[in-house]
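During the reporting period, our protein records have gained a structure token line. A sample record is set out beneath this paragraph:
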Amino acid sequence: MIRLVTFDLDNTLWAVDAVIRRAESALNDWLDRRVPEYNQLAADTRRAIAKSVTDADPRIVHDISRLRETVMRETVEHCGYNPARAARLAADAFAEFMDWRHRVQFFPAAVDVLAELAESYTLAALTNGNANFERLGLDRYFAFGYCAAEVGAKKPDPAMFERAMAHAGVEPAEAVHVGDHAVDDVQGAAAVGMATIWVNLACADESPPATATVTRLEDVPSAVARLSEQGLSTRS
């Protein structure tokens, strides 16, 4: 019987690429007005600064928010601003980026699906990204959530899935993960014993070993129900 349904966020509940492009554009406009030297730096210089940040703290790659703000701070400082001023500018620039990063357009039926599932199951958000489900108003449906920064590892690493099951007090046979990524979501969750629902909205030709596949989000509740019934029949 399914008790916990975990969801990926980006590209499962909304298309993320356009969101990031708009956020990057807004960030660059913000920087042009306040740190004009920033976007004038050579691409090689900016890449070298980013590499120096990850070389100094390799685990920062799991925390993309801290990584982005740290790279901006170091880059602003490289432009000649003193450390305190660079830190303030980077924090404000990152806030601008995050404002736009959360201006998402949910896929049709996404919110309705969450509302329906929340009536019967515990829902949780699991993301490698930095979208905050509470900031998006999804805390009406998600009981809790984890991101890679909090667990120190990205999907498909087992850590996020295991943390979610421990939080909900369920066994793998009582949990299903819903996501769009064949490796991060399907293979990652399956490796810890969870059932999986692959959200293939683009009708891709991939064939990941998902327990179930949907090409429309509105089919997720019935897929979860079938998996729950199968669990009951297995125990009978």
User: Anything to note?
Assistant: The mean pLDDT is 96. The CA atoms of residues 3 and 120 lie 8 Å apart. Strands lie at 4-7, 122-127, 142-147, 175-179, 195-199, 212-214.
